[in-house]
Design brief:
Layout: E1 2-4, H1 10-24, E2 29-33, E3 51-55, H2 63-80, E4 86-89, H3 91-101, E5 109-112, H4 124-135
Parallel strand pairs: 1-2, 1-4, 2-3, 4-5
Helix pairs in contact: 2-3
Length: 136
């Protein structure tokens, strides 16, 4: 299972290619994601039809509201289906997903930060906070 905060960033390009390659190799996959206004209208058409897409409810509220929605969706999905691994993509999904599954029976977790937005020094405080959380 792949988990991505949204498909409006660089992670989308990576996931399109990665899921295509894995699907071609016979690996069943699920992609859990959020949609932003910048998300392409044809996002479903960009993925092989054999990739199961789970769209999370719209991102309303603050980070804790998004965390609760992701936690509920992840726990429900893992209770219903057997996965070999869960791969978190992007810093937000990586942090929130790992917190959501902490202490839960689950398959191995993997994390890829992709664009490394937490290293963007134009936004000093968020960058420092993200870097500290990532190291933790």
């Amino acid at each position: 299972m792949h988990v991505c905060e949204d498909l409006a960033s660089g992670a989308s390009s990576f996931l399109e290619q990665a899921t295509r390659e894995l699907t071609g190799a016979g690996v069943p996959q699920t992609l859990m994601f959020s949609r932003l206004p910048e998300t392409a209208d044809d996002i479903e058409a960009r993925f092989d039809p054999r990739v199961r897409l789970i769209e999370l409810p719209p991102q309303r509220g603050g980070v804790w509201a998004r965390y609760r929605r992701l936690r509920e969706a992840l726990r429900h999905e893992l209770a219903q289906h057997r996965y070999v691994a869960v791969h978190m993509h992007s810093s937000k999904a990586g942090l929130l997903g790992r917190l959501a599954l902490a202490g839960q029976p689950r398959p191995p977790l993997f994390y890829s930060p992709h664009g490394l937005s937490f290293q963007d020094r134009r936004f000093v405080l968020p960058s420092l906070a993200s870097t500290a959380l990532e190291r933790l």
